[in-house]
Write a structure and sequence with these properties.
Blueprint lengths: L2 H5 L8 H28 L4 H28 L2 H24 L5 H24 L1 H5 L4 H30 L1 H21 L4 H4 L8 H13 L2 H31 L4 H51 L3 H28 L6 H30 L1 H18 L35 E8 L5 H18 L1 E8 L6 E8 L2 H11 L2 H11 L9 E6 L10
Length: about 525
């Protein structure tokens, strides 16, 4: 394949399974947007806060379930998790349709069932994101993330308009019924996918739910690149959420449109996003990731200002086109950034934290914007949201994304087996690992500096505590100590969790050792509860 074809934004579609899932997901996303229009329009005669609760009900489950869902996706076969989520959402959407046809769908029941659908989305999200490298390869994750955003926005270009027309012509029950049927396509593709055995069987570990949650939190906390992606997401999403939360109110109150007109406004956002996919490769080359984040926030600020001050539907629709472009550019940049920084053993949990920030930001911001709109008025609320986006753009200079060229999350099984005189049990521990180095005087400052990155590596992969000590009797002798909770955790460090980046950090520090010396590693077991070596 030529370089031009490889760099094409559509290159991941050459992968058969990715292409089939992309098409099936497009149909499902169209159904979801049709349902969103139906749900919001059933409530549009009520208060602004109640309308925005539809978005909250759909997003809040991610806040509650994203981290447990990430653990599930890392510990169980991801295809089975995805299929289970599809059939669960099929059942809930069917219940929505039946109740709508019976005219028994009260606002409370509507929001409750929307919440349950959000639970299915929360269960599905980390597993869906985590299988992307299997489908397209790490080198095309950026393009795959952009195509995922194109999928959502293409659905936004079709689904709302179609949903608005169906609601106006036949009622909300039919959009709920279509959404229920749309889950069958994704389930069928997943069931037919012959996933490689090595990928289908996650590493066997006996860690419990809380231990797995802590391991994921520990990794993210000690990965500066991932933390910076989360910060940039947190700075963009609340202001961006105002557009989706308040657009139905702007359509009905400021522009005097019905459900069909509202669907066309959403279609304009989607059309802008689809068109933006063609511009993204050039934009990345010209602006870089941080330029896209700043430019996208500025565009969103301008669009929110137009929505607050302009009351001509045609002009508003034109203004929404660049909003779609900015949305896909920013989200695909953030998604690709977090994907490329996560190793396989913790990928779903790391992505769950990202989805928690992304969806949680929308879930918490939407009712806030609704309350501000009821209090200060819709136009003032939109201008305040635009100001938040200006602050987001300005903050890129202070908190940019870190460069990812030096990050390689490929597994690296480079630690030799410990030469122990007995075989510990998995639960034995805590384990104190000590590594002795000899460093000449002229290299000690640089050695300590390089060991800071080694320290983050140890903590990411399982260390509860870490320290580097210089011998008071022999200043050339340094002792690195780190504590791991159990032998099973340390075994996972050896054979599952280390990456090529971790290996590079170790090699760069060890290059400063006294010539002719090598690190000396020992393992000590806690004996406070009894002897470590069996009698």
């Amino acid at each position: 394949m030529s370089d031009a074809a490889t760099d094409s934004p559509w290159a991941p579609l050459a992968a058969r399974v990715f292409r089939a899932l992309w098409i099936a997901q497009l149909v499902s996303n169209i159904g979801s947007w049709m349902q969103t229009v139906g749900a919001q329009w059933l409530l549009v005669g009520d208060s602004a806060a109640l309308v925005t609760l539809v978005q909250t009900a759909a997003s809040l489950p991610v806040v509650l379930l994203a981290l447990p869902s990430g653990v599930i996706a890392d510990r169980f076969e991801r295809r089975s998790v995805l299929v289970t989520a599809q059939f669960a959402m099929l059942a809930v959407s069917s219940a929505l349709a039946v109740l709508a046809f019976l005219d028994a769908l009260s606002p409370t029941v509507l929001l409750l069932l929307t919440f349950l659908l959000g639970c299915g989305t929360a269960l599905m999200g980390p597993a869906w994101q985590a299988i992307q490298p299997e489908l397209v390869g790490r080198e095309r994750l950026g393009q795959a993330a952009a195509l995922g955003a194109v999928n959502m926005n293409l659905a936004r270009a079709v689904g709302p308009a179609l949903g608005g027309a169906v609601v106006a012509a036949a009622g909300a029950g039919w959009v709920f019924a279509f959404n229920a049927a749309s889950y069958l396509g994704v389930a069928a593709v997943l069931l037919l996918w012959r996933r490689p055995a090595a990928a289908a069987a996650p590493p066997a570990r006996n860690e419990g739910l809380l231990a797995a949650l802590y391991a994921g939190r520990r990794y993210v906390w000690n990965a500066p690149g991932v933390r910076r992606v989360l910060l940039r997401t947190l700075l963009f999403i609340p202001g961006g959420a105002a557009l989706w939360a308040l657009l139905p109110l702007a359509a009905s109150r400021s522009l005097g449109l019905g459900s069909g007109g509202y669907g066309l406004l959403l279609a304009a956002v989607g059309a802008g996003a689809v068109g933006g996919a063609f511009l993204l490769p050039r934009a990345r080359r010209l602006l870089g990731a941080n330029g896209i984040l700043a430019g996208g926030a500025l565009v969103f600020a301008g669009v929110l200002a137009v929505l607050a001050t302009v009351h001509v539907p045609g002009l508003v629709a034109l203004a929404l086109l660049p909003a779609g472009l900015a949305w896909i550019a920013v989200l695909s940049t953030l998604n690709a950034a977090v994907q490329t920084r996560l190793p396989g053993w913790v990928r779903a949990r790391g992505l769950a934290v990202y989805l928690l920030v992304f969806q949680g930001g929308q879930a918490l911001a939407a009712p806030l914007w609704g309350a501000v709109a009821d209090w200060l008025g819709l136009s003032t609320c939109l201008l305040i949201a635009g100001g938040a986006m200006l602050l987001s753009a300005a903050s890129v200079r202070r908190w940019p994304l870190h460069e990812a060229e030096g990050i390689n999350p490929t597994p690296s099984d480079h630690w030799p087996a410990p030469p122990l005189v007995f075989e510990p049990g998995e639960a034995d521990g805590p384990v104190l690992v000590s590594v002795v180095y000899r460093v000449p005087a002229e290299r000690r400052a640089e050695f300590r500096d390089r060991m800071r990155r080694v320290a983050r590596s140890r903590r990411r992969t399982g260390a509860l505590s870490w320290g580097l000590y210089q011998d008071g009797h022999d200043p050339e002798r340094f002792v690195e100590n780190y504590l791991v909770s159990s032998w099973a955790e340390h075994h996972a460090q050896h054979h599952v969790r280390l990456t090529a980046t971790d290996r590079r950090f170790e090699e760069e520090a060890r290059a400063l050792l006294t010539p002719g010396t090598a690190p000396e590693v020992t393992h000590a077991f806690d004996t406070s509860a009894g002897p470590a070596i069996p009698p």
